[in-house]
Amino acid sequence: MAEVKQIFFITGTDTGIGKTVFTVLLLKFLRQEGASAGALKPICSGGRDDARKILSVMRGTLSLDEINPWHFRAAIAPSLAARQEKKMVRLAPVVTHIRKMQKRFDILLVEGAGGLLSPLGENFNSRDLIVALEAMPFIVAPNRLGVVNSVLLTLEALPKKLQAKARVVLMPQPKPDVSARSNGALIAEFFDPKRIFMV
Q1: Are 196 and 188 spatial neighbours (Cβ–Cβ below 8 Å)?
Q2: From 19, 28, 41, 160, active-site residue
Q3: Which of 19, 54, 57, 150 would suit a FRET pair with 25, their CA atoms being 20 to 30 Å apart?
Q4: Architecture of domain 6-198
Q5: 1: CB partners within 8 A, 6+ apart
Q6: DSSP notation for the chain
Q7: Quick check: 27 and 54 in contact, CB under 8 A?
Q8: pLDDT the model gives residue 2
Q9: Which residues pair with 39 in a beta bridge?
Q10: 100 is an active site residue
Q11: Ramachandran bin of 56, using left for φ above 0, alpha for ψ from -120 to 50, beta for the remaining angles
Q12: Looking at residue 52, what is its pLDDT?
């Protein structure tokens, strides 16, 4: 029987909180374990550094334009950055591209831009992409004061079916505050502890 191909969608509670770091770490781990794994950052604004980090791990398996087909110069929400360049990003072509790339791997990581509800294109966000792809959501969050509220709000914004398979990933901070030791346990009072991971 053929293996079921999976899509892991890496989203976050905000921007600049470690989504790309986690995506690259998970991609490296999966490939080192011998898994047929690839990663995409379909949409980005403010430069392509994140996509290039993924490219370095893919070692020629995917081109930069396959990893990151939609990219815009301004460091603002991708939907606005696209409009500034008189361009438009629609949900259907993004889903089509991801599905096409999915055929080449058993596990495909897809990294969003910004937080779960940040506008990616015309009338869609990461939540819409996750729903369209029936992907497993990974919610990346900074392990610092306030993260419990941010994680629970993000989980609340997911449809129940997706909440049931979501994973929470707490990323370490350069200068951890006192809450870093207890955030995971506190989130576990509201969410399955087996699906909470500390990096």
Answers
A1: yes
A2: 41
A3: 150
A4: 3-Layer(aba) Sandwich (3.40)
A5: none
A6: -PPPPEEEEEEESSSSSSHHHHHHHHHHHHHHTT--EEEE--EEES-SHHHHHHHHHHTTSS-HHHH-SEEESSSS-HHHHHHHTT----HHHHHHHHHHHHTT-SEEEEE-SSSTTSEEETTEEHHHHHHHHTPEEEEEEESSTTHHHHHHHHHHTS-HHHHTT-EEEEEP-SS--GGGGTHHHHHTTTS-GGGEEE-
A7: yes
A8: 44
A9: 109
A10: no
A11: alpha
A12: 97
Q: Are the CB atoms for 101 and 66 separated by under 8 Å? A: yes
Residue with tokens 């047929």: 36
Angle between helices 126-133 and 91-102 (to 10 degrees): 50
Tokens of 193: 């502890």
Domains of the chain by residue range: 6-198
Cα separation, 28 vs 18, whole angstroms: 15
Tokens for 187?
A: 């989130």
Q: Output the pLDDT for position 3.
A: 55
* pTM over 0.85, yes/no: yes
